[in-house]
Amino acid sequence: MLSIDPSIVAALISTALLAAVYCYLYKIFREGHTGIWALSWAACSLRFASDAIGHHWGMAALTALASPLFNLASGLLLLWGLYIFMGRKMPGWWVPVTAMGAVWITGAFLLEIPFVYRNLPLFVFLGIIFLWTGFVFLRHREIKGAAKQITGWTFIIWGLHKLDYPFLRSLDWFASWGHLITALLTTMVAVGILLAYIQKTIDDLRESKMYLQTANEELEAAVEELNAAEEELRQQFEELQKKEEHLRESEEKYRTVFESTGTAILVSEEDTTISMANAELERLTGYPRQDLVGRKRWTEFVHPEDLGMMKKYHLLRRSDPGGTPDSYEFRLVNRAGGIRHIFLTVALFPGTKKSVGSLLDITEKKLADEKIKYLSLHDPLTGLYNRTYFEEEMRRLEAGQKNPTGIIICDVDGLKLINDTFGHSTGDSMLVAAAGLIKSSLAEYDVVARIGGDEFAALLPDSPRPAVEEARRKIKDGVLEHNRLRPDRPMSISTGFSVRNSNNISLNDLFKDADNHMHREKLHSHQSARNAIVQTMMKALEARDYITEGHADRLQDLVVGLASGLGLQEQRIRDLRLLAQFHDIGKVGIPDRILFKPGPLTAEEYAEMKRHCEIGHRIARSALDLDPIADWILKHHEWWNGQGYPLGIRGEEIPLECRILAIADAYDAMTSDRPYRKALSRREALREIEKNSGAQFDPSLVDMFVNILQCDQSPDNCGTGAAD
To answer: For the chain, give me the number of helices (H) and strands (E)?
Structure first.
């Protein structure tokens, strides 16, 4: 048993996939040529399967017969489907020739004619018709573009390959390449045909759209005719009113419709005076009816830029009614000076110079359309252009060959830390500030866009390297000025730029070069930027500690006393001091309404408060100074019995430093005044701690803590419990 040639496996898999794709297309669209193509790729796949079986199990006889038969079937099915697709009739000779080919292959196999002579007629036949089909496809007028070129030339190349294959197949070094070349050509033809199929489908849809547009225009014309007929009937109705008194009730009904139609309607005299107006026109213009009818001309409500057009239509409609549109848009200026976008439909009263106009207010629709267009090209948060617009501008500049051209890439450092700590609203404010800073640092004609979550890009056409360097310097200076004015919210922006002076460098490569420069700068300034943010948080925590009247200082004294009693090394004691000072740094991310609430917290508020351990852990991991105590900050609210948070660990799984801090922190909290309660006495606080020994606190540390405090207060009481 021999191993299978990988080239055969590759060819088998590719043709099987093509068969599956075209089967799926046939299942969806039920078009004959897609089904025939699916059979073609299936036959081609069976050809490679027979090669694989013959090669793997040494069944050369199977390969010698099955492979050329499937090859013949695949090629002819492919051509048959292609001719149906092109709307051409398959030549009449293909059926007898196919039969003769099958007979020849079978007979040659039975007579054991050598490979070259056995397959030469088949491959010459397929090669010639593939060449011919390629030239026919290239000359086909209904198929255009890349699909035409890919498919036509691939057929020609495939035909040439068919012609030389019987001679090259006998060469050992060419055997594997033959399958790969066939698989590649098969795939290219399949892709080309698929592209041509898609193009033809698009063309069919375009024709359907044109047909629908024509039908719609005809429908609109019919509606206009109906409107004209309706107007004529109304004229006749008014004449009958004058002759017959009992039709006055019908006239009142007409007036009711005129008033309640929901659309502003006016009747204009030849001199543009308004002779009739309904209530909706009053609302639209801001004038009462008595100030409109007989007193106002409709020209007084038209925007100056639209007035010339409307006067022209007004005169032309009376001299040549068919030479002016019946519907168009204009801008109406109301009494308050507001501008409304109006869709006007106007018609002449038959036999008169009067016209009636229906004014539909489309302002909201226009604004919505403009908003959609704006949002499609702009970032909704910062108001800058978005990535789509930026890439379109790059393509436009590339086509215009503008030089020199510069690109600046900016990235806001530490945004994730800000979002995780202060919330996304603060992060969004930082992005808006960065966007304004970058925009103000560049020229008005430069294109500035937000191209990612924390990334901005600027395109500077006609800008030599000194100008781009100056723009980058302005951005850096702007960051320094921002940090001077807002030290509580420091900003750091990594930048990179690149400039091209000729078209030898594409704008895409220029963008990549600028992006690489930015990332190199970000790599060097990453830690310092995060440290600056963390230092700001530490200052904020110190400001809050002022409110708690030195809680951190007292806590340091307590933990140092207990740590010294345990005989801890000086380095661990220094880290404990740091933990006592910054264990609650995560509270900078907790809202003040929760942090300083005078009463007990609700369940939701308490859940929010418990997040400060995880927030503090992330902050500490971001600062070199606090990284050694990051794990302790995460676990400093764990309980000895496992009922703490956030991990729920218990006993000695909790770091010793966290167990020391838990006792000291609880003691200081109980002996300090809070907005919602008075401080406990020293004795009461120690009793509470002993009460929670073994539950919240480490029992051995509780005994030592109580003993240390009693010794500090009265050396005579050393060794006695708090409850004594």
So the answer is: 26, 10
Distance of alpha carbon 67 from alpha carbon 63, whole angstroms: 5
Is pLDDT above 60 for 259? Answer: yes
Convert the pLDDT of each residue in 565-610 to its tens digit: 899 898 899 889 889 888 888 887 788 788 778 888 899 989 988 9
Phi, psi of 509 (to 5 degrees): -70, -35
> Which residues have a Cβ under 8 Å from the Cβ of 516 and sit 6 or more positions away?
496
Using an 8 Å Cβ cutoff, are 130 and 151 in contact? Answer: no
Structure-token pair, residue 617 = 């852990």
- Written as six digits, the tokens of 669 are 């909290």
Helix extents (H) in 320-407: 363-377, 387-400
- Residues composing the chain: 724
Instruction: Give the distance from CA 189 to its chain's centroid.
Output: 34
What ranges make up the beta strands (E) of 536-620? Answer: none
- pTM for the whole structure: 0.46
Of 61, 165, 170, nearest to 122 by C-alpha is: 165
> What number of other Cβ atoms are within 10 A of residue 627's Cβ?
11
Q: Is beta strand 339-348 parallel, antiparallel or unpaired with respect to 355-361?
A: antiparallel
Look at the block and give the residue holding tokens 């398959």.
90
Q: List pLDDT tens digits, range 298-331.
A: 889 899 999 889 888 888 888 887 778 888 889 9
Tokens of 385: 């252009």
Per DSSP, the residues of 177-198 read HHHHHHHHHHHHHHHHHHHHHH
For residue 555, the SS3 value is: helix
* Neighbouring C-beta atoms of residue 327, cutoff 10 Å: 13
Is residue 178 within 8 A of residue 165, CB to CB? The reply is yes
d(CA 505, CA 404): 11
How far the first Cα of the chain sits from its last, in Å, is 92
Q: Dump the DSSP string for 445-462.
A: TSEEEE-SSSEEEEEEET
